[in-house]
Design brief:
Blueprint: H1 3-9, H2 12-19, H3 23-49, H4 63-72, H5 76-109, H6 128-144, H7 147-175, H8 190-204, H9 208-232, H10 234-239
Helix pairs in contact: 4-5, 5-6, 7-8, 7-9
Length: 240
């Protein structure tokens, strides 16, 4: 059985335990540490190659490529950097698509959105319809919205979700301290509190149009929830 089949055939709690509830958080922390170190080293290399006051503020998208060209006195280093950026963007997009597909699958299974999002292929046990819907929606956004605004809209949504997760850690630790936990947040409660605060600080630095789009999207989500999700929610049915 493939990983995708295990993901979409087991319940969320069972899936976490099956895939390693202790190893996954450690892998995330280690990955973040490595990526942060690489980003810092790249920034130090860029500043070492050119004074930061000479950076082109209007051309930040190709900033590293330009710095590589100027530092080497040739064009091929910039091409390599640009090629790496394209590959990195493609991997990020695929990760977002896969993640959103899993989120919608879980929401549909919990009754918050229509059942079409949890339909899986009988042979491969993956949500084909869900994946196609997400891919079509993302393609339309990518074709109609400027890349900078789309990136900021993605960032504010991700930061808001991270802030909610940090708050959720505080709430769950207070309301349900007896729940089995394969991994406990270190330095609690400082870590989730600081995490939520930093997410809000970064969100505050985003443009006003990004906040407007975020507010409208949140409004659409709330309308969908109260028109459909609230009445079909499995959790709400269990409580009542």
């Amino acid at each position: 059985m493939t990983l995708a089949q295990r993901l979409f055939r087991t319940k969320p709690t069972e899936r976490i335990v099956a895939e390693g509830g202790h190893d996954l958080p450690l892998a995330i922390i280690l990955s973040l540490a490595i990526v942060t170190a690489v980003y810092v080293l790249v920034a130090l290399a860029a500043v070492g190659a050119m004074p930061w006051t000479d950076f082109d503020a209007e051309g930040t998208e190709a900033g590293l490529a330009s710095i590589a060209d100027l530092a080497a006195g040739a064009t091929w280093p910039g091409l390599i950097v640009s090629f790496g950026a394209v590959i990195a963007i493609a991997s990020v997009v695929l990760t977002v698509i896969y993640g959103q597909t899993c989120i919608l699958f879980a929401m549909s299974r919990d009754g918050l959105i229509p059942r079409v999002f949890q339909r899986v292929n009988p042979r491969h046990q993956v949500p084909v319809a869900n994946t196609l819907i997400v891919a079509l929606f993302i393609s339309v956004l990518a074709g109609l919205m400027p890349l900078g605004q789309l990136a900021e809209a993605t960032s504010i949504g991700t930061l808001f979700a991270f802030a909610i997760v940090n708050v959720g850690v505080l709430v769950l630790r207070h309301r349900s301290p007896e729940l089995p936990r394969s991994f406990r947040t270190p330095l609690f409660p400082a870590t989730p509190v600081l995490g939520a605060i930093f997410c809000v600080i970064v969100m505050a630095g985003l443009a006003g149009v990004t906040w407007l789009a975020f507010g409208l999207w949140m409004l659409v989500g709330l309308i969908c929830y109260f028109l459909y999700g609230y009445g079909h929610s499995r959790l709400n049915a269990e409580v009542t």
